[in-house]
Structure prediction request, 102 residues.
Amino acid sequence: MKQDILDSTNDSESRGSESSARWSREALEQWLVERLTTELKVKRNEIDVEAHLATYNLDSLTAITLVGELEGLLNRSLSPSLFYEHATIKDLSRFLASGKAA
Prediction:
């Protein structure tokens, strides 16, 4: 599964000596759904990318853990309250794909 997600990212762009992959909104959405199903111990069909994230009762420890994983994945700093600043998985993945600062 992880390789499928990596394969769906765009080619890496080099900036000086730094190289980072730019993830598509769809790939990020898929990653988020996969991680939430694992962390929340729910089935894939129980995750709706357009449902409010509060629906899933995501605790702060899990949210912070996922933010840390995303920072490593995207090679950029993100707000610790990222999951509380975006209403849905779709909104969050759109924001992350945009590359905007958190």
Notes: The radius of gyration is 13 Å. The beta strands are 12-15, 18-21. The longest helix spans residues 25-40.
